[in-house]
Automatic annotation (TrEMBL), chain A:
GO terms for biological process: antibiotic biosynthetic process. It holds the Pfam family UDPGT. It comes from the Bacteria. Keywords: Transferase. One of its GO terms (molecular function) is UDP-glycosyltransferase activity. This is MGT family glycosyltransferase.
Automatic annotation (TrEMBL), chain B:
It comes from Umezawaea tangerina. Coiled coil: none annotated. Residues 13-103 form the Carrier domain. This is Acyl carrier protein. SUPFAM superfamilies: ACP-like (SSF47336). Transmembrane segments: none annotated. It comes from the Bacteria.
């Protein structure tokens, strides 16, 4: 029996994939705990799990105009680097209390890798999005240096392995079918597929809304972008009003003033329960929403906002599983065209989505991830 | 147009005006479907803040530049020379200047 400590940032999409892996480890007789923002993590992992609190600033609201390289600067300078500094003492305390054999450090909870390295513990990277695996800054060496210097500054400039890529191994919750033929940073990047696990549903849903024989479209911008999405959601609602579909639109801020008859607006939805009954998803190309949709063979309309989303959107299009639109400029006409295209079976998007979904199930997910972790 | 100076001509044709017009044309084609009618493209237009270009657009633009100007203009090298702050603030004018200088150097041999 071994002890595994998951170090996570206060981001839903980064915690969720660890839940299935942790459950698998527990089923095999191991002990697990999480180190992270207590309230955020507790809500996701359930009341019975061990959660060791780390001071963690939450990601501040970001407007729709914060995109591209400015969003990159904000993400690191104003969130991930301060997060690493804030979390480090909590991670050290968690290690002292839980005495893990292996630390599983999220790629964006940089304190995990740094502290494990400092204490000489074996650690593995959890890459819940594949965007970092494709070396997104390769064309911008000075930006790469900017980041590397700041990350190294977290450990006093002492140098050492990149805390985002453990030399012991990187769990990547994707497959080649979605990732594409890119070169991986090293041989121990394990493409285990998404860890999609039935999770306790936190929102109720009027299931009678879904009608057999009428296509259902889900529109969601994920958990970290609500404030940026008001214009886009309004255009999407207009687009849907013209289509022979029934739609579920997630509007966490209740920003929509007019709602067409064929659109059900909810502040939250039980996404995993909904996806098997949905025919298309319109989203921001967040890695988890994309993977959960493809897992269920649902084609996508992707409108990336920032961060890893443009890369993930590119992967969806390259896999043939969806259509890309511009988040900031797409009108109801663009969106209506895109939704119609992916709903049309003759375009092949649904089939391509199913192929990626099959690759996900074949990759082994949480069980395969647990196999790798047991060997560390 | 905010550009009223005509740069000295080298190798026959290369002026800031013509290059700006050509690059504006490429950007309009790139964003065509999304209607750029309301956006005037000048030397001061910023790639990110004003045009909201995405990384795939830069890849397309790089291909367009290569097709138009050949190997004399190296967009990848142009981008690689920038610090983060410079990339955030990058303008159409900087690219135009880069193209003009590259073509003149090539013409001089």
């Amino acid at each position: 029996m071994s002890r595994f400590l998951f170090v996570v940032p206060p981001l839903v999409g980064h915690v969720n994939p660890t839940i299935g892996v942790a459950a698998e480890l527990v089923a095999r007789g191991h002990a697990v705990a999480w180190a992270g923002h207590h309230d955020v993590v507790r809500k996701l992992v359930g009341d019975d799990a061990a959660v060791l609190d780390c001071a963690s600033p939450e990601l501040a609201a970001r407007g729709s105009d914060l995109t591209g390289p400015a969003a990159f600067r904000f993400l690191w300078q104003d969130f991930l680097l301060p997060l690493a500094r804030a979390m480090a003492p909590g991670v050290r305390a968690a290690v002292a209390e839980f005495a893990p054999d292996v630390v599983v450090a999220d790629q964006q909870a940089v304190a995990g890798g740094l502290v494990a390295e400092e204490l000489g513990l074996p650690w593995v990277t959890s890459a819940t999005t594949s965007a970092e695996l494709v070396d997104p800054l390769s064309g911008m060496p000075k930006v790469k240096t900017w980041l590397a210097e700041r990350i190294d500054g977290l450990r006093g400039g002492s140098g050492g392995p990149d805390p985002r890529f453990s030399p012991h191994g990187v769990l990547a919750f994707t497959t080649r079918e979605l990732l594409g033929p890119v070169e991986l940073p090293h041989d121990d990047v394990w493409l285990v597929g998404p860890s999609v696990l039935p999770r306790p549903s936190t929102s109720d849903f009027p299931w009678e809304w879904i009608v057999e024989g009428t296509p259902t479209v889900l529109v969601t911008l994920g958990t970290a972008n609500a404030d940026a999405g008001h214009r886009f959601l309004a255009q999407a609602a207009q687009a849907l009003s013209r289509l022979p579909v029934r739609a579920v639109l997630v509007d966490p801020d209740s920003s929509l003033s007019e709602v067409p008859d064929n659109v059900l607006v909810r502040r939250h939805v039980p996404q995993l329960d909904l996806l098997p009954r949905v025919d298309a998803v319109v989203c921001h190309a967040g890695h988890n929403t994309v993977c959960e949709s493809l897992w269920h063979g649902v084609p996508l309309v992707v409108a990336p906002i920032r961060d890893d989303q443009p890369i993930v959107a590119g992967q969806v299009v390259a896999a043939g599983a969806g259509v890309r639109v511009r988040f900031s400029r797409a009108t109801s006409a663009h969106l209506a065209d895109a939704i119609t295209t992916v709903l049309d079976d003759t375009t092949g998007h649904r089939r391509a989505a199913a192929v990626v979904g099959d690759s996900f199930r074949a990759a082994g997910g949480a069980a395969r991830a647990a196999d790798h972790l047991e060997k560390v | 147009m905010s550009v009223d100076t005509t740069a000295p001509v080298t190798g026959g044709q290369v002026t800031e005006d013509t290059v700006l017009a050509e690059i504006s044309g490429m950007l309009r084609v790139l964003l065509d479907e999304y209607g750029l009618d309301d956006v005037e493209i000048t030397m001061d237009t910023r790639f990110h803040e004003d045009l909201e270009l995405e990384s795939i657009d830069l890849v397309s633009l790089s291909a367009d530049l290569k097709e138009r100007y050949g190997d004399e203009v190296n967009f990848a090298e142009f981008i690689a020379g920038f610090e983060l702050e410079e990339i955030i603030a990058m303008t159409v004018g900087q690219l135009v200047d880069h193209v003009v200088v590259s073509l003149r150097e090539a013409a001089r041999g």
